[in-house]
Please model this.
Amino acid sequence: MQETLIRWLDWPPLWTLAAVVLVWILGWVGFLFGFGACGPGLGLACLILGLWLMGSAAWLMWRGGTTVNPRGQPSALITGGVFAISRNPIYLGDVFVVLAASFWWDAPLGLLVAGGLVWVITDRFIGPEEERLAETFGDTAAMWFNTTRRWI
Model:
C-alpha cells in the first residue's frame, strides 16, 4: 500500500508543483537582491514558453499515437517539432514554469530549485524513459540521442 502511494505521488507534475510551492515560499522570505522590474516580464515569458513546450510536445505525442505517461511503453518515436530541439520538451517546460515562478515572485533561490528539478527529473524519469526508447527503437533512438540534446 505504501509503495503504491509513493509510486502514485512520484510523478513529474507533482515534482513541478512542489518546486513551484517551494519557490512561492522563498518569495515570501525576501533577499538582498532580486530580479527587479524585469522579474514579472521574464516570469510571463518563461511561463508562456513552458506551457507552449508542454502543449506542443503533448500534441505531437498524441498525434503520433504514443503515450505521455513517463512510465508507459512508447509506441512511436517522435523526433520532429519541439522534439528536434530537446528530447524532453515537456520536462523542459516544467523547468520553465519553475523559472517563471522564480522571476514572478522575485525569488532568486528559485533558480537553484529549478536546477534541483532538472536533477530529479533526469534521475527519476529521463533515464528509465531513454532505456525504454533504446530497447524499443534501437538504432533510430540512438541516432536521435546523438543528434538531439537531452535538455537544450
